[in-house]
Amino acid sequence: MSEVASGHGPEVRTLTIVVNGRATSATKTQLSFAEIVALAFPQGTTGDNTAYTVTYRRGHGEKPEGTLVEGQMVKLKDGMIFNVTATDKS
């Protein structure tokens, strides 16, 4: 699936990724830890003591599965699956 914005510039490829069981579209080639957390919890969470764990699978051949930590980015692949959990750092 492809789309071209305004008929000018490079072709923009839309990827489908799954975040916490919900399919979503991405036009970027990579996403950050923070962007994936925002997709998982668009309304945010309450409290300053919240920590997130991001795991993924069905990634690129060199690293098809793994864990992201704050500040990291991951290269996207169509059909990639992300699981994001929030825990209280009490």
Automatic annotation (TrEMBL):
Residues covered by the Multi-ubiquitin domain: 16-88
Family matches, as Pfam families: Multi_ubiq
Superkingdom to which the source organism belongs: Bacteria
Protein name, UniProt field: Multi-ubiquitin domain-containing protein
Biological source species: Roseisolibacter agri
